[in-house]
Amino acid sequence: RIDDHILIVYRNRKILDPSNAESNARRYLAGSRIRELADRANINERVTPNWDSFLVMVHSHNENIQVDRFDSYEALHRAMMYAVKFHAPLWKCCIADQKVGRDINKLRVGLDMLVEYFKIR
Questions:
Q1: Phi, psi (deg, nearest 5) at residue 105
Q2: CA atoms of 65 and 99, how far apart (whole Å)
Q3: Are 72 and 40 in contact, with CB atoms under 8 Å apart?
Q4: Can you tell me the distance from the alpha carbon of 58 to that of 119, in angstroms, rounded to the nearest whole number?
Q5: The pTM is what?
Q6: What pLDDT, on the 0 to 100 scale, is given for residue 3?
Q7: Computed from CA positions of residues 10, 14, 18, 22, in that sequence, does the dihedral angle turn out positive or negative?
Q8: Which residue, among 92, 93, 53, 52, has the nearest Cα to 69 in the 3D structure?
Q9: Are 34 and 95 in contact (CB under 8 A)?
Q10: What is the pLDDT of residue 46?
Q11: Which of 19, 55, 59, 94 could form a disulfide with 34 if both were Cys (CB 3.0 to 4.6 A apart)?
Q12: Residues 6+ away with beta carbon under 8 Å from 37
């Protein structure tokens, strides 16, 4: 399907962990949590910067939206710093919605680190 995220495709094809379905699901949950934090923080791949969203964040009268966006950005930043060596494949797959190709093993290790960080059981 066209509207599926690449992380969903990897989960459905059991590419995240071909040998263990439970580990496959945990890795998917960690990646989806990163994707959710990026969506809440209004971070996505752009060709040009989105100055409107930045100005709304700075000059907004909706303090709840601004605080939630900042908190989500901070949570995303902390999670990505926990798996800093695997930042590129995590960003490429979870946020930019692109295939990782040869970096699939780095993506798996990075998702395992995020499973530890988010304490997903």
A1: -70, -35
A2: 31
A3: yes
A4: 33
A5: 0.79
A6: 60
A7: positive
A8: 53
A9: yes
A10: 59
A11: 94
A12: 72, 73, 75, 76, 79
* Average pLDDT per consecutive 10 residues, the chain (121 residues; last block may be shorter): 80 93 95 91 66 52 58 90 94 92 95 96 88
Residue 29: alpha-carbon gap to chain centroid: 10
Residue found by looking up tokens 């791949």 in the block: 45
Instruction: Give the residue carrying structure tokens 């971070």.
Output: 43
| Structure tokens that stand for 118 in this block | 């988010």
Q: Which two tokens stand for residue 17?
A: 């962990």
Q: 3-state secondary structure string, the chain?
A: CCCCCHHHHHHHCCCCCCCCHHHHHHHHHHHHHHHHHHHHCCCCCCCCCCHHHHHHHHHCCCHHHHHHHHHHHHHHHHHHHHCHHHHHHHHHHHHCCCCCHHHHHHHHHHHHHHHHHHCCC
The owner of tokens 């995020």 is 114
Alpha carbon 62 to chain centroid, angstroms: 25
